[in-house]
């Protein structure tokens, strides 16, 4: 999944609301901090990671997943 499939900014907002750093979240999920960075930057991440983040942040997946990704604009190259 990439930024056409999920609202990456909502992940960063949810983390910041909990007062956690990317490293703290990575430690809790037992992943590398770069994995959390990529998720929050809209890079390609797994569905499993999005599910784990939503579970940790206690937010429904439906708040993060784009309902119709075929209608969302393609991500721009950074």
List keywords for this structure.
single chain; 78 residues; mainly alpha; 434 Repressor (Amino-terminal Domain); 49% helix
User: How many whole angstroms does the radius of gyration measure?
Assistant: 12 Å
Helix-strand topology string: HHHH
Helix content: 40-55%
Overall strand count:
0
Summed up, the domain count is 1
Strand content: under 5%
CATH level-4 homologous superfamily:
lambda repressor-like DNA-binding domains
Please identify, by name, the CATH architecture: Orthogonal Bundle
Count of helical regions: 4
Describe this entry's structure for a reader.
By secondary structure, this protein is mostly helical. The chain has one domain (8-68): lambda repressor-like DNA-binding domains (434 Repressor (Amino-terminal Domain)), CATH 1.10.260. The protein has helices spanning 8-17, 22-29, 33-41, 47-57. Helix 2 packs across helix 3. It starts with 7 loop residues before the first helix and ends in a 21-residue tail after the last helix. The mean pLDDT is 88.
């Amino acid at each position: 999944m990439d930024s056409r499939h999920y609202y990456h900014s909502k992940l960063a907002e949810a983390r910041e609301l909990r007062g956690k750093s990317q490293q703290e979240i990575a430690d809790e999920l037992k992943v590398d901090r770069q994995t959390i960075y990529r998720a929050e930057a809209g890079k390609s991440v797994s569905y499993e990671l999005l599910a784990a983040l939503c579970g940790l942040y206690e937010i429904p997946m439906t708040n993060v997943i784009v309902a119709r990704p075929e209608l969302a604009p393609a991500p721009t190259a950074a």
